């Protein structure tokens, strides 16, 4: 297989029309992803916020994280074998796949929301109350902005997980870009498989890039450390003990940056190191 | 249950292949991620570059990566080396950040004490920073191990032999028992990996137990 074959696949008009065309497959893939995330958000966000706020039923978060060890392929096959025959319509292939995708999207969203709310400093909450904010104002002006970085990193890993698994779900007859990979394999059309893989990779990278931008825009500068003024005033803070020997690099406490950073670390890690948002530095 | 017992030999053989495909990349990934993480922890600018690059690699879905590697590397699609390399890429992506975070989390006063005792940069890294970062690195390694075991099973879709075979074969033959056996075997393998890493982490950090006792 050569580079020219890949180019000719992408420039072949036949690959851009109809059900099997690139626009339709991309749309399908995005629709599955959006639908899944919507359902998962509706389930995971209130639950995670409640667990984080009340501190009760933390085992839910631990349990959801442990459930991630279940191989996604196995879950996909098992659910479609059991649920598929129960549904007598064209949706027999779509519903089980979406159900599995939702199951996979819940753990990162749940622990992201939980860790976000849990990471809000009690002092910040108390200060807001002391300033005379109502419960609703505390929630919208303090808790939500502080929880946002961890929640968004959960959303990012959930999105990636769903895009990747929706590809695999083509093996249980779901549409989307995975069709090129699975159909290409069945008909030994290796060029089609490679071109499908390129599309999947590009889709994942673009989706992740958009969410990274959103993360950058939505997170308050005071939390992300984007504002240079905040950083400078923090450096002058009297409690900030100077470190003459380790002065070869800045504040060693860049551990928190992991949680807001650009990579797709799972919220497993996020829950392990819930930090004080005000101390996070920039990546 | 009887099916599992009847096919025990086959299950164990595939479990061994699975352990190899998921385990070797963990070791390779750790070996690559430690120097990268060390660089990232020392140079904030390099940290941004390294973590962004590895983050982008981690973004590529596994099935797509399994298919894209052969033309890039000139290997055959059925070569298990593709899976090993893909899993190593994912492991490095996860661990570089963890190693950097672990090294950065070492207390400033501990580092000063080491410097005052005459440790050079490398000796300090080997004898002080790295051992103290073991718990954080082990936590990252556990995440990587569990995700590796799960992702390797996807490779059965392109015909690489491991525990995932029971999933695809069971589905193709509409035989749920076989799928369940595959799932349980994967879970057990992930559990074994997790326990091995936890034990290794405990053995490597005797001081944490000394405090507890």
UniProtKB/TrEMBL annotation, chain A:
<keyword id="KW-0812">Transmembrane</keyword>
<feature type="transmembrane region" description="Helical">
    <location>
        <begin position="30"/>
        <end position="53"/>
    </location>
</feature>
<feature type="compositionally biased region" description="Basic residues">
    <location>
        <begin position="229"/>
        <end position="239"/>
    </location>
</feature>
<feature type="transmembrane region" description="Helical">
    <location>
        <begin position="93"/>
        <end position="117"/>
    </location>
</feature>
<keyword id="KW-0813">Transport</keyword>
<keyword id="KW-1133">Transmembrane helix</keyword>
<dbReference type="GO" id="GO:0031460">
    <property type="term" value="P:glycine betaine transport"/>
</dbReference>
<feature type="region of interest" description="Disordered">
    <location>
        <begin position="225"/>
        <end position="283"/>
    </location>
</feature>
<dbReference type="InterPro" id="IPR035906">
    <property type="entry name" value="MetI-like_sf"/>
</dbReference>
<feature type="transmembrane region" description="Helical">
    <location>
        <begin position="194"/>
        <end position="214"/>
    </location>
</feature>
<feature type="compositionally biased region" description="Basic and acidic residues">
    <location>
        <begin position="240"/>
        <end position="254"/>
    </location>
</feature>
<dbReference type="GO" id="GO:0005886">
    <property type="term" value="C:plasma membrane"/>
</dbReference>
<comment type="similarity">
    <text>Belongs to the binding-protein-dependent transport system permease family.</text>
</comment>
<keyword id="KW-0472">Membrane</keyword>
<feature type="domain" description="ABC transmembrane type-1">
    <location>
        <begin position="26"/>
        <end position="211"/>
    </location>
</feature>
<feature type="transmembrane region" description="Helical">
    <location>
        <begin position="65"/>
        <end position="87"/>
    </location>
</feature>
<dbReference type="InterPro" id="IPR000515">
    <property type="entry name" value="MetI-like"/>
</dbReference>
<dbReference type="GO" id="GO:0055085">
    <property type="term" value="P:transmembrane transport"/>
</dbReference>
<dbReference type="InterPro" id="IPR051204">
    <property type="entry name" value="ABC_transp_perm/SBD"/>
</dbReference>
<dbReference type="Pfam" id="PF00528">
    <property type="entry name" value="BPD_transp_1"/>
</dbReference>
<protein>
    <submittedName>
        <fullName>Glycine/betaine ABC transporter permease</fullName>
    </submittedName>
</protein>
<feature type="transmembrane region" description="Helical">
    <location>
        <begin position="162"/>
        <end position="182"/>
    </location>
</feature>
UniProtKB/TrEMBL annotation, chain B:
<feature type="domain" description="ABC transmembrane type-1">
    <location>
        <begin position="15"/>
        <end position="201"/>
    </location>
</feature>
<comment type="similarity">
    <text>Belongs to the binding-protein-dependent transport system permease family.</text>
</comment>
<feature type="transmembrane region" description="Helical">
    <location>
        <begin position="179"/>
        <end position="200"/>
    </location>
</feature>
<feature type="transmembrane region" description="Helical">
    <location>
        <begin position="149"/>
        <end position="167"/>
    </location>
</feature>
<dbReference type="InterPro" id="IPR051204">
    <property type="entry name" value="ABC_transp_perm/SBD"/>
</dbReference>
<dbReference type="GO" id="GO:0005886">
    <property type="term" value="C:plasma membrane"/>
</dbReference>
<dbReference type="Pfam" id="PF00528">
    <property type="entry name" value="BPD_transp_1"/>
</dbReference>
<keyword id="KW-0472">Membrane</keyword>
<dbReference type="GO" id="GO:0055085">
    <property type="term" value="P:transmembrane transport"/>
</dbReference>
<keyword id="KW-1133">Transmembrane helix</keyword>
<dbReference type="GO" id="GO:0031460">
    <property type="term" value="P:glycine betaine transport"/>
</dbReference>
<keyword id="KW-0812">Transmembrane</keyword>
<keyword id="KW-0813">Transport</keyword>
<feature type="transmembrane region" description="Helical">
    <location>
        <begin position="81"/>
        <end position="100"/>
    </location>
</feature>
<dbReference type="InterPro" id="IPR035906">
    <property type="entry name" value="MetI-like_sf"/>
</dbReference>
<dbReference type="InterPro" id="IPR000515">
    <property type="entry name" value="MetI-like"/>
</dbReference>
<feature type="transmembrane region" description="Helical">
    <location>
        <begin position="48"/>
        <end position="69"/>
    </location>
</feature>
<feature type="transmembrane region" description="Helical">
    <location>
        <begin position="20"/>
        <end position="41"/>
    </location>
</feature>
<protein>
    <submittedName>
        <fullName>Glycine/betaine ABC transporter permease</fullName>
    </submittedName>
</protein>
């Amino acid at each position: 297989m050569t580079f020219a074959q890949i180019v000719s696949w992408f420039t072949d008009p036949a690959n851009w029309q109809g059900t099997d065309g690139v626009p339709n497959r991309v749309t399908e893939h995005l629709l599955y992803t959006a639908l899944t995330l919507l359902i998962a958000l509706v389930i995971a966000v209130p639950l995670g916020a409640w667990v984080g706020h009340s501190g009760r039923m933390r085992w839910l978060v631990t349990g959801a994280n442990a459930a991630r060890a279940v191989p996604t392929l196995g879950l996909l096959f098992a659910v479609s074998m059991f649920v598929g025959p129960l549904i007598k319509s064209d949706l027999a292939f779509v519903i089980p796949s979406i159900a599995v995708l939702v199951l996979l999207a819940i753990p990162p969203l749940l622990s992201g929301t939980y860790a976000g709310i849990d990471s809000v400093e009690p002092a910040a909450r108390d200060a807001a109350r002391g300033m005379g904010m109502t419960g609703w104002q505390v929630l919208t002006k303090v808790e939500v902005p502080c929880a946002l970085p961890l929640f968004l990193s959960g959303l990012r890993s959930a999105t990636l997980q769903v895009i990747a698994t929706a590809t695999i779900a083509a093996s249980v007859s779901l549409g989307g870009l995975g069709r090129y990979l699975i159909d290409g394999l069945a008909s030994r059309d290796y060029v089609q498989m490679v071109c499908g893989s390129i599309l999947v990779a590009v889709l994942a990278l673009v989706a992740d890039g958009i969410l990274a931008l959103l993360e950058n825009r939505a997170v308050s500068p005071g939390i992300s450390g984007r504002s240079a003024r905040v950083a400078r005033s923090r450096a002058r803070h009297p409690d900030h003990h100077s470190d003459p020997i380790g002065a070869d690099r800045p504040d060693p406490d860049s551990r928190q940056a992991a949680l807001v950073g650009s990579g797709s670390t799972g919220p497993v890690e996020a829950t392990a190191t819930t930090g004080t948002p005000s101390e996070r530095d920039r990546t | 249950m009887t099916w599992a017992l009847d096919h025990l030999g086959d299950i164990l053989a595939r479990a061994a292949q699975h352990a190899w495909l998921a385990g070797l990349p963990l070791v390779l990934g750790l070996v690559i991620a430690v120097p990268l993480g060390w660089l990232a922890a020392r140079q904030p600018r390099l940290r941004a570059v390294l973590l962004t690059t590895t983050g982008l690699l981690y973004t590529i879905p596994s099935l797509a990566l399994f298919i894209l590697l052969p033309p890039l590397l000139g290997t055959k699609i059925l070569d298990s080396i593709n899976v090993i390399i893909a899993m190593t890429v994912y492991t490095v992506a996860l661990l570089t950040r963890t190693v950097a975070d672990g090294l950065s989390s070492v207390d400033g006063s501990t580092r000063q004490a080491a410097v005052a005792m005459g440790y050079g940069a490398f000796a300090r890294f080997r004898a002080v920073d790295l051992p103290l970062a073991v718990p954080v690195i082990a936590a990252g390694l556990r995440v990587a191990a569990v995700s590796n075991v799960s992702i390797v099973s996807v490779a059965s879709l392109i015909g690489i032999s491991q525990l995932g075979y029971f999933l695809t074969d069971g589905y193709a033959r509409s035989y749920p028992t076989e799928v369940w056996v595959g799932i349980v075997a994967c879970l057990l393998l992930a559990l074994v990996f997790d326990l091995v890493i936890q034990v290794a982490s405990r053995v490597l950090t005797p001081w944490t137990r000394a405090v507890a006792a």
